[in-house]
Structures
1.
Amino acid sequence: ARQFFVGGNFKMSVFYPSTLEKGQNGTVQSIKEIIENLNNAKIDENVEVVISPPTIYLLLTREHLRSGLEVAAQNVFNKPNGAFTGEISVSQLKDSGITWALLGHSERRTILSESDDFVASKTKAALDGGLGVILCCGESLEQREAEKTIEVVTSQLKAVADAVGKDWSKIVIAYEPIWAIGTGKVASTEQAQEVHKAIREWLKKEVSDEAAEKTRIIYGGSVNEKNCGELAKQEDIDGFLVGGASLKPAFVDIINAKS
Ligand code: 13P
C-alpha cells in the first residue's frame, strides 16, 4: 500500500489569517505557532507530513519542527551553482536540512510563466541532488470545460518523464485543478478520482508498472477538515496538498483524514 502523504503549502501566506487567529500570517511568530501546533499534535504515524513555508523561513522551520516531519522548499533552481541572483540551489537546500521541493505549482506556471520544460528541468535537478519532489499539475476551468483536463495534465507530466526517465520513486504527484485552488470550490470526489486514475494509467503506460503502483498521487484545491474524509477514501487519492487550511490548527485533522 502507498503511504498517505499530506503536504502543507504555506505559499507567501499573507492572504490567510494566522494560525490561532492572531493577526497576519507569514511572520516569524506565526510560523512558530504553526510549528508548535504540529509538534504537539497527535499525528498518525503512518502519514508522511511535509510542510512548505516561504523560503525565508525554511531554516527556522527545520530548526523548530520535530523530527519525523519534513520540510519542502516552494521552489529550487535548475543549475547547481553560479551567478543566479535570487535563486537557491538543491545543494543549499540539502545543506539546510530541507529534503523536498514543491515544483510546478500553478501559481508559478501562470504568474511567473514557468514552462513545462523548466519545471521538468528543475525536477531533474532536485532528484539528481537527492531531494524528493512534490510535482504539481492541473488544468484551468477553461481547459476543463473544453474537456482537455487529462490532455493538459499528462502533457505536464510527460515533460517531466522526458527529463527524468523511469525512476519516479522520489516524486509525489499533486493534482491541483486551478479552479479549485483558494476558491472554496473543491473538486468532487468523482472528479478528483477520475483524474487520479487517469494519471495512474498514464504512469503505467508511459513510465512503468512499478511507478503506477507506487507513486503517490495527492489532491490539492480547497481541501479542508470537512471534505478530506470522503476524498481520502478514493482508491487513487493518496493524500493532499493543502494551502489555506494548512495554516490553521485543523490541518492536523486533514493529516489524520485516514485514521
Ligand atoms: P488551497 O488549499 O488554499 O485551495 O490551496 C491549494 C494549493 O494550491 C496547495 O498547493
2.
Amino acid sequence: APVWCVVPAAGVGARMKAGFPKQYLKLQHKTILEHTLERLLALPYVAGVVLALHPDDDYWTTLPISRDQRISCVDGAVERAGSVLNSLTWLEDNGHSDAWVLVHDAARPCVTSDTVANLIESVRRSDAVGGILGVPVSDTLKQVVNDNRITGTQDRSKLWQAQTPQFFSVGLLKRALQQALDVGLMVTDEASAMEFAGHQPLMVEGRADNIKVTRPEDLPLATFILQQQAL
Ligand code: CTP
Ligand code: MG
C-alpha cells in the first residue's frame, strides 16, 4: 500500500510568542515548515503530503514549496486532532482510503530518514495496528496535586515520550480519531485515539534530537541539531 504524509501545520504557536505561527520562523535561511516538508518529500516511498493549514494562513503561498504538486492543502481545525481528521477526510475523498499515513508535526524539522524507515519496517514486521516514534523518558517524573505538593513518583522504566511520525492505516486512524473526538477525549496524538479504540500501537525507539520546536529556547537547539546532522 502507498504511504502518504499528513502534516498538521494549522497551529498558532502560542508558546513560541513569535507574533506569527512558529512553523514560519526561519532556521538556517529556511522556514521550519520547509525543513519538515523537504525531509518528508525526500523519502522515496512517500506518494504525497496532505498539509493542514490555518484557514487564515497568509504565509504558505509565499513559499516556493507551495507550488510543489505533491502537496495538497486542507483547512485545519481548532485542535490538532481536527486538523489531522480533515487531512484524512481529504485522503478518503481522493481515493486513498487504503493508504497508510505518516502523521508528522510541522514543528519537528529535525526528523531523519533512517528513523522513519525504521518505524515503517518495525510496524510491518510486527502484528501491531501501527506505531509511533518515541524515546524513553530520562527525567524522574512526579505526580503533584494542588499547591505543587508531590504525592508520588512514576515508574520511569515504563514511560516513553511520544514523537511523530505516527504510522497508521487511513481508515482505522480516521475512525479512531472521530470516535475519540465524539466522546470529548483529550487527543494530543494519533496513538491516544488508537489506544482509546482498544488497539496497542507499537512504540519504536527514535532519536532524542527529533524535537518539537515549541518554546523560544528550542530555536537555537534546533539550529544546532540541523547543523550537526548536515556534517
Ligand atoms: N496544529 C494543527 N492544528 C491545531 C493545532 C496544532 O495543525 N489546531 C499543529 C501545529 O501547527 C504543529 C503540531 O500540530 O505543527 C503540533 O502542535 P503544537 O506544537 O502544539 O503547535 P501549536 O499548537 O502551534 O503551538 P502552541 O500549542 O504553543 O500554540
Ligand atoms: Mg498546540
3.
Amino acid sequence: MKEQIKCIGCGAPIQTENKEELGYAPPSSLKRDVVICQRCFRLKHYNEIQDVSLTDDDYRKILSGIGDTDALVVKVVDIFDFNGSWLPGIHRYIGRNKLMLIGNKVDLLPKSVNKNRLTQWMSSMARELGVKAEEVHLVSAAKGTGLLDVAERIDELRGGRDVYVVGCTNVGKSTFINGLIKQLGTEQEDIITTSHFPGTTLNLIDIPLDEESALFDTPGIINHHQMAHFVSKDELKFIMPKKEIKPMVFQLNEAQTLFLGGLARFDYISGGRRSFVCHVSNDLNIHRTKLENADELYQNHLGDLLSPPSEPDNLPPLKRHEFTIKEKDTDVVISGLGWVTVKEPGVRIAAHAPEGVAVTLRPSLI
Ligand code: GDP
C-alpha cells in the first residue's frame, strides 16, 4: 500500500485535488523529498495564514481539546453577521478559559455608530448565547485599526498562557492573525511549528509568543446559517459591504414593503407615515412595493428584479418574524445583511429572512 504523505508543517495528509481543503499541495510539489502543504508554505514564506475548513466533527474535537487546556480563547466575529459568525456550542467547549471577543470589520460602520453601544451589545449577545466575554474589542483587521491595542490586551490577559484564535470562515480570522503577527513582530523563521491535537488529522499551526507559549490558529468552521452561503462568490460582493456603508432613509406609509435584494424583506404593517433607515451594503438593490403585492412579486421576480441570489434554488424559504417596536430608535438586525433602524416607537413590522438566519432587535447603535 502506498504510504500517505503528510505535510511536514502541520501533519495534514497531503492531497492535490481541493485548494480550499486541508493538506492541499500542487501536484508538482510531490516530487520533492519533503512536502509542505500550501497553507504552511504561505505561512512560512509570506507570514500569511490561510483559512481551511474542517468537518464539524473534527472541529468539535479541536474545540473540546481547547476546553481541556489552560489558555486564552480569542473569538473573532464579523460585526455585520454576529449570529451567523457565532460558533454553535462554543460555551460548552471553552471550559474555564477566559474569552476575548473581537468584532472585526469596524471600518464598514458609518462614522455615526456609537462604538461603546456596539461592544455592549456584543457582550450581551454573547451572554445570551451562554458565554461571558472577559473583554470585547473592535478592530479592522484589513486596515490594522485597533490591532496594536488588542495585541497588548492579549498579552496582558493571557498571563503567560497559550492563545487559541477561533472563528467561522469569512469573519476575517486569517487577516486578523496576519495583522497580529506584524504587531507581535514574530520572526519569520520562528513561525512554522506544529502541535498535535489528539483525535484529529490536524496539527494546529502555532506562532510562538515567547519561550513557553504560543498563539494557535484553528481552522474556520462553516456556519451553515450564514447568509453568505446562499449566494455565489460574485454576489457576495453585493451583500458584504466593501467600504463604509451609507445609511439610506425611507419614508414609508403603512402597508409598504422593502425588499433587500431577494434575500430579505421588511414589511411596514401599521403605525402611520414613518421613517426607516437601512444600513446595508451600498451595492445591494432595495426595492419598494405595496405589502399586498409583495408575495406575488417575490414569487415571480426572485432571481431577476429581486437579486441576489440569481440562482434562488439554494435559498431556503423566507421565514417571517413579526415585531411591535416599543422603543424609539430600534435596530431590526438581519444577520449577514445589516439592519433597519426604526426611528419612532409604536409600529408593527415584519422582517423576512432565509430560514436559519437570525433576526433580532437591539437599541440603535447610532
Ligand atoms: P477567514 O475565512 O475568517 O480567515 O477570513 P479572511 O481573513 O479570509 O477574510 C474574509 C473576507 O473578509 C475577505 O474578503 C477579507 O478581505 C475581508 N476582511 C477581513 N478583514 C476585514 C476588515 O477588517 N474589514 C473589511 N472591510 N473586510 C475584511
